[in-house]
Amino acid sequence: ASTCSRCGPGYKTPLDAMKGPREEIVYLPCIYRNTDIQKPDYLATVDVNPQSPNFCKVIHRLPMPNLKDELHHSGWNACSSCYDDPSKRRNRLILPSLISSRIYVVDVGTDPRAPRLHKVHLSKPSVINCKSCLYRNALIVMAYPFIYVIGNWEQPGEAAPFGYDFWYQPRHNVMISTEWGAPKALGNGFNPADVRAGHYGQRLHVWDWTTHKRIQILDLGEEGAIPLEIRFLHNPAAAEGFVGCALQSTVFRFYKTPKGNWAAEKVIHIPGKKVKGWALPEMPGLITDILISLDDRFLYFSNWLHGDIRQYDITDRRNPRMVGQVFLAGSILKDGPVKVLEDKELDSQPAPRIIKGKRVQGGPQMLQLSLDGKRLYVTTSLYSAWDKQFYPDLVKEGSVMMQIDVDTDKGGLKLNENFLVDFGAEPDGPALAHELRYPGGDCTSDIWL
């Protein structure tokens, strides 16, 4: 997806990326762990070109060589940070496994429509972004171009107690990482007692990008419990961004202060709903995935339990303003077992979402935005152990991929009723589809220098 023949991968600037070609295929990991199907997880390639005879179909499946990996998030061997280096190619998708100790390197360069396995590594990753990957409490460096693990990224003795996502801003010589929880706590489901026992995180770790030293810890407090996805603004000169905190359904803005250190402030809070017929008397929204449009105008996130996706205008960074919302299933549907007793936002419980005759199970979860910002893709699986606990019908019937049409002028979200990829209809049985990636790079995996 180069814009010139002499350049490296990606695009010169985020605004150039917005003018890139429309997405034609999407890669997603599909998970069988915690289902009744004894098959390996696989990488699905989906055709999303409306002119194609295979529109909305899985056109290729690459099974992993092992069972129960729990593929989760992925990353690239190179991104737009290598734009000026013609020796680099974005031709390997790095697929870490959350539960097993494997990292799969997938060749998507030889035939983008039919990826093939290139290599398997043993390590313990969670999220990979460009050339490094972060496991819950250790950062692993992978060397380009041969891709092999060369050791821990952070300095000895400085590993964070938990890890999850990270984002770096080279112009400010900084990387910031988040915390999910202890593997033993989250491995088989969510127990609120584990939060009280300190097995889940609530801090951001600020690292010096050059020396790999930890320079600051930002404690977000209880309101910032389980900070998952972190997003700097795409503008490489910007020294601020947003992080979604799952448990209390808050979004914090983090920023560099005039003194040169880092701070964070809460800018969005989704109120919980008082309910009966559910696991707890109050149901949080559970903010899971968040992303920022390439022009840094809009922030999107999903409330996996309440069942909605929201769009915020973030031109005033300290005061995000909700401009779009769409409900896509969730736990408070009017024909479900949960009765909402008190709701600070809605007058009534939302109706179930049926697309092309298929009832959507689970809640909106992983997001990916088209480069031009006009189409938001969404899948419904969070993580197989939590899927099984909160949405058993999702595990039985498989997840779906949907597309939301975005108003990029005034803001607004509308479900595309003609788009559905049904992973309940997979050849080996219903699968749990997770994160979405485009071959040429996307909103959540590109970093600019």
Can you offer a commentary on this structure?
Strands 29, 30, 31, 32 and 33 form a 5-stranded antiparallel beta sheet that branches. A 4-stranded antiparallel beta sheet has the order 3-2-1-34, with no helix packed on it. With 449 residues, it is mainly beta. The protein has a single domain, classed as YVTN repeat-like/Quinoprotein amine dehydrogenase (Methylamine Dehydrogenase, Chain H, 7 Propeller), CATH 2.130.10. A hairpin with a 4-residue loop joins strand 17 and strand 18. The chain contains 5 helices and 34 strands. It is 6% helix and 36% strand.
Brief descriptors of the model:
mainly beta; Methylamine Dehydrogenase, Chain H; 36% strand
Full CATH superfamily name: YVTN repeat-like/Quinoprotein amine dehydrogenase
Please give the CATH class: Mainly Beta
As a percent range, the share of helical residues equals: under 10%
The CATH topology assignment is: Methylamine Dehydrogenase, Chain H
Task: Give the low-pLDDT segments.
Answer: 124-138
In angstroms, what is the radius of gyration?
Answer: 20 Å
Separate helix tally: 5
Residues in β-strands, percent = 35-45%
CATH 2nd-level architecture: 7 Propeller
* Distance linking N and C termini: 18 Å
What count of structural domains?
A: 1
For the residues shown, what is the average pLDDT? 92
Beta strands, count: 34
Which structural category do the helix and sheet elements fall into?
mainly beta
Largest sheet: 5 strands, antiparallel
How would the global form be characterised? globular
